[in-house]
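Box 3.1. Reading complex inputs
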Amino acid sequence: MENRLYSAKYLKSIIESHGFKFSKSLGQNFLIDGNIVKKIVRDAGITKDDYVLEVGPGVGTLTEELALNAKGVVAVEIDKSLLPILDITLKPYKNIEIVHGDILDIDIKSLIEEKMEGGPVKVVANLPYYVTTPIIARFLEEDLNVESLTIMVQKEVAQRMVSLEGSKVYGSLSVFVNFYSNPEILLTVPKSVFMPSPKIDSAVIKLNMKKDLPEVDKEQFFKVVKASFSKRRKTILNALSSYGFNLEKDDFKIALETAGIDPKSRAEELSLEEFVKISKILPPLDI
Ligand code: SAM
């Protein structure tokens, strides 16, 4: 079957015939490069055994390529005006289901249970940039049967997600993503492969979900991480002790020293494992 949704000419004709207007506020930048579309699906490792959950199918460009390679695709689209277009563009494919809804509100667990045989599921998406982090957070934090996320995000966000201690862009997002997954940047993508073209470059990143998470109380751990990065210029001791927790500065000092961490070091120098150590040594934190 001819795969043509990524042709800019076809995209133009279909959106014009439906009077569709791109919504900036919904992050609508559609892919118009067949090589990139194919590469995303290939690098996501999609096979005929896989169910894929796509966020934001747009006019169905990536969805089509996914359907050609996967067992089944469920795509969640928020924009009602795209539904009649998707009806036409994806008509030939029997293994696609479009769900109208907001990925931030929808019950993803039930979706996986009811429409994807309970998973495991691979998430693939060219994400709307205005909600990248909350969407990723949902998939990482909720106990979902998700194996990996292969997602297009802003290049700068991708770099933050893969960075390790010592890097200039290392921060709480890096620790958060690395807590739940092993991230890798698959490719960087120029602005020219989208319509309309965004202002910034993008990257495709794959988050391979960890089967075994670090053994630590998650709530305590993320409190420590958040407080540690809240004032990047301060030492770890000052950042933690000025955050307003129910502990004295000396308590933090002793805990850091017990963990083998110099109280004068800064959050961006500490590894995920070191944050785990501190969180375990400190008594339960409260504000
Ligand atoms: N997948 C298409 C492509 O690659 O050409 C479109 C990608 S476009 C960057 C993002 C898509 O996500 C748009 O179709 C937009 O309407 C949709 N979207 C935006 N916010 C959403 C949300 N909260 N839930 C579901 N879809 C959303």
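In summary: DSSP finds twelve helices and nine strands in the chain.
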